[in-house]
């Protein structure tokens, strides 16, 4: 019932990583005009909205997650006029537009940070960031022992106006990304202005970067286990993340959204990137007066095992959906190894296994109650590009740690659209630069023109799944009931009779419903659910009218 009135509760949003989507100028970097050109493709796919990765003026140390000006467009991606055209075109096609907002940190080139550097210790300009004196007799040791998420200490020392080494400032990611001090009222007021700037330009909401961040422990004490804090990209340092005060910010932002809805009836959406240890803590971020959605990453990090998936889904249904909010499912994004590759390990188990599992996982995700996010290229079944040479890697994680272990370039390689050779239709326009990351030759097999022409492609699976999702009242928002199933198989019912089953094993299992499925991730004879396959059936054997 609720879903009929709140579009976002079961929306499917497509993440556009702008620099890798479509390049309209030929400079090798995707741009906003490219996104606009790609809208009909996304409409055909059937998504409800898009989330645009940051396109603001930025020195691009972390591909735009280092924002120098929150209210403009970097010339690399276009300008505000092009942005307005994109929003208008999306509106005409019924595609909602979410921006990526980065409130935990900015760029060291942001005018407020530059002002803070110039203003010196004790100034109001420095109070907007976390500046502190170092420890030790000459202040040469950082103020505490925190690690940055991308390697190295979380503090850098500045040179003061007199040329001497001075205070330190906090940056939980790279030194080029100083953390804002949300205890300073100027910061909240500035973000209120930023939200309104973009809402006035017609956006439908925001994806919020590091939404469990913002506030740090007021005393910035030493961490008891700094090595553990540094082991994961997720926000685990309990002194730096998930402080209770952050919830006040989300209440404030929610009320700004409600204010706009009251004016024009269009519901805006706030979706947070919330990395917290448990589903229960996660649920606090999606209370009815806070964020509408928060990405639930446990599905993404679960190994390909029936028990692991069942545990993650059950916990989310109980601890998040159980509180009346909606679960927001994700299998891929611009920070993670793509599913086709992730599920393909160990590679010795047979080629095509990763792709089969990724297809099955997609049908599972689209059958779960709640909202879902698709990362560009996921609908093409793109694998991770695992053999990019070191000298093309741009991820600050690689440059700061010297290790390829968590490097994110491999899922950010520009999309293939057509043709047999790079740039595969990714770039057009007056210049003819190479794509900013090299595309492997095998991308030809995944190009959108081939995917659209082949009804067995990933693209058709996603499109058919999305079509059924909008046609069938059983899917989207609502409850889920597990069915008994053999070991290695998960089966559940949605509404009054849509059954979804996934076989995580490699040997066939009996199907939970006789007859042919409505949709399956691979060949699926009546009565059987082959290994590494998911399928949807109506339990009464009917086929819905999707036209
Ligand atoms: C999370 C974003 O998804 C990631 O790409 C970025 O590097 C960090 N936040 C820091 O902004």
From TrEMBL:
The keyword Iron does not apply. Pfam families: Alpha-amylase. GO terms for molecular function: alpha-amylase activity. The keyword Ribosomal protein does not apply. Residues 15-412 form the Glycosyl hydrolase family 13 catalytic domain. Keywords: Hydrolase. It comes from the Bacteria. One of its GO terms (biological process) is oligosaccharide catabolic process. SMART domains: Aamy (SM00642). Belongs to the glycosyl hydrolase 13 family. PANTHER family: ALPHA-AMYLASE FAMILY MEMBER (PTHR10357), NEUTRAL AND BASIC AMINO ACID TRANSPORT PROTEIN RBAT (PTHR10357:SF179). This is Trehalose-6-phosphate hydrolase.
